[in-house]
Fold each of these.
Amino acid sequence: MTAYKYETHLHTSETSKCGCSSGKEFALHFKSLGYTGVFVTDHFLNGNTTVPQDLPWNERIALFCHGYEAMERQGAKLGLDVFFAWEYSYGWAHFLTYGLGKDWLLANPDLLRWDVLDYFDRVHADGGYIVHAHPFRESIEIVQLIPGKVDAIEIMNSGRTDESNRHALDFAISYGLPRTAGSDIHSTSQKKLCGIKSSRRLMGGVDYIEAVRSGDAVIFDESRK
């Protein structure tokens, strides 16, 4: 049976300050590794972004999409599926948001003024989904968990220790939440990768979360030499 392989957590150098590789470089990289698709999850405007704060909202969103758009263009040439998502920050807590697009961001210029719970509710009301990324990072000062508002937990993150990932797994089990994984990759030189494999080709963020919920998304963990 064919397994379709996906990276679910990636930061480009165009949009995330922590990113070291460009969207084009990542597209070439993941195609060479045999992946079917990638979700670009750059840090949103309330996180570690390259986008200036003193611009009109539509200009900020245009800049925010540069990394994704560069990767999507290259991916289209290569036959690599590239999907739009983002990593929303609430203090030390980070939430991967899937299933919504650039138009949704443009239509909500007051987004950064929303309370975090309002953000979750609005995302869900408009058909999006939220995954709590690396909930137990070693370096954070305060662990903030909102199990009643998220759709899944990232229980494996390649940038975290085994202990942190075990805590994330325990959290997911305790609340009966679906589990997923992502490399949180910032550079093509990163050796350790993880993500999900599906028995079918995914069409986007909504399809991805449905696969996670149904059990069709199988977590993989691997290290390249």
Note: The domain at 4-223 is CATH 3.20.20.140 (TIM Barrel).
Amino acid sequence: MLTENEIGRLRNAIVATIASPVIGSIEDYTWEAIFHYVKDIPLSDPALGRSKLLYDAVDIRTKSGWSLKSLQLNNIKPGNTFFFVIQRADVIKKAVQLGFPNLAEGSSPQELGAAIIQHWNKKIIASKSAQSVVHSYEGILLKTIRGREYLYCEYPLEPLEANNFASAWTVDRITGKDGVGLQGSVSGRVELVWYKNQKQLFRARTIPSEAVTTNIERVRLQPDRYVETILTALQEQVSDNPSENNPELNI
């Protein structure tokens, strides 16, 4: 989880981000940028290219990696369970690569579930190796629709044990037949859901009691003041650190 210093940096970064009149809410790369600031990790320019590997932030000093998500929920109280997409998993197309050469949509739920878990595990293992990660986590920022309350949750992220899962199709409430979602449960609790039409894999997480809560007032800068402040800061940065990465600004 976060240190006291990092909790303070998280709050400051959220306040500063929400103050920008060009940002509606904290999404995707905005959350990644905030997290790099919180952890004091160098941040690359997304215009230089984006990796398809699992970890959005890696601290080479501690060999720690985080897969980052930002989600809006109605209920962000500890104990609430939520689902979110972790991977596009076209396991039928990749059946041979996964070691299931005879896999089809009509295969048994347990065989499909095993292939889905294998697909996810391969992503974790390959990314850990490629990104030199030893300590693996999910770092999730939860927020409410009004953007005043935020929770940071952190979970260990390691390969799953397929033998612990029982897989079964959901039941269509209207027809009573198999639905489109394959659920993977551990001890009767749904942990994974794979939708065969979209080929998307969802994971369940429960908000822990130790989640870091941040409440803020939404104070927004006027656009004129925002632009002037940013341009001034850019000029100062270029003047203080002249280099190829900080070209002269034509303002």
Note: The longest helix spans residues 109-130.
Amino acid sequence: MTRAARIITVGHSNRSLHEFLALLHEQRVGIVADVRKLRGSRAMPQFGERRLGAALGRAGIRYVAVPELAGRRGKGPDPSPRPCWRNRGFRNYADHMRTAEFRAGIRKLLGLARRSRTAVMCAEAVPWRCHRSLIADYLVVQQTRRVDELVGDRLRPHQLTICARIERGKLTYDLA
């Protein structure tokens, strides 16, 4: 039997809070690492930072915001050295991944995962539409970590994103 990954990724999507908590318990998550830039939601108020943090606490799950890994990054260089990413948000996040701030966020995340199984959480339902897939790329390549993705209610191993390349043992999204 394969040992469970210490880090999984999950999008809260439009689930009810009850469904989300049940999913986390089913996956034996002890910590939720929130990597959203905007940790409030008018459309899904149950996933606002305060309400979610309180609900997770009552459920015995620790809530930690990790703003160093948040998405929605500012504009990067033009033209981008990462044209594979058609989506500007992914290009900008790939730029952010080269910063000390990003590396500090990764260290924080790994520290959490040493304590308990940790879910890297954002809003998007599917990982391939979310920057958490780039975080997972980094963890798999640079940290040789197994990362699982929760898609719907199924767990699957993270597969490197289409733009990811490994060059001399390092993750890159740059042109060859």
Note: The two ends are 38 Å apart (CA to CA).
Amino acid sequence: MMKRSEDVEGRARELVQCLKKVKGEARVQTLKELHKIVAAHPSVEKPVIDSGVLGILSSLLGPFTSHAVGSEISLVVDMLNEGTTKTKRKCARLIEVLMGAESFRFEIVSSLSLLVGLLRMVKDKRDPDGVSAGLSLLKTICSHDQIRSSIVSIRAVAQLVERLPDLSPNSLESALQILDDLAAIPDGRSALKDCPQTIPNTVRPLMKVSEACTRHALSILWAVCKLAPEEFVSLAVEAGLATRLLLVIQSDCPPELKKQASDLLKLCSLNYTATLFISKCKLTRTMQ
């Protein structure tokens, strides 16, 4: 049994080395065989990674030597959509690692199939680790301005907003950063405005999780309230925003964060008399 395991690992290492030398159809066949071995023998995954396969695959994702090789790489996206929860997590992490390579082109991760697959992972409440992996990759993808409209087009904004209340702190931070990035484009702001839960679900994390969460939440709330103040400012105040903004201003947060909170507080006060607005800011309502 041990001998067979060593043989499989040895063959996998040989194939990784072959990828450096072969081209065209031979490279396609090598990729296919390596994929079959790793799929059939999970224990081989770590030795294969240790042998430098990620760097080699990353170089293939630059200028493709053939359409066939590109198709083989796209198998990762297929596995992310159709594999087990464990497989999906590994595929998401693999793609994120590959995105760190200098030769990586953003077009590779702009496919709607990948984006939809990641949203499915984020929606799966049964797999918190998968949610975390999906959000982490989606956050990295969202850092590319060119892909943000595609993310908005698959209704990602509403789905992410709906998940905010029950995410872990790390996942919440990732989700808020994604929404903050999407709020930077007109389609993203419109999608946030059209989602009924945007205001309450974004007010809730202010000063309750982390400084990063507070920063992203403030930015999102500013974008929405500035877009349609008559419609959303009173809704935000009723959700407890004014009270939380006062907490930001009185905290040891960085000056730029306090300035943003102060500007938003001024915007919130415009539709109220001084007496009524002060009553809305009572600190007894702070952390309900």
Note: The mean pLDDT is 81.
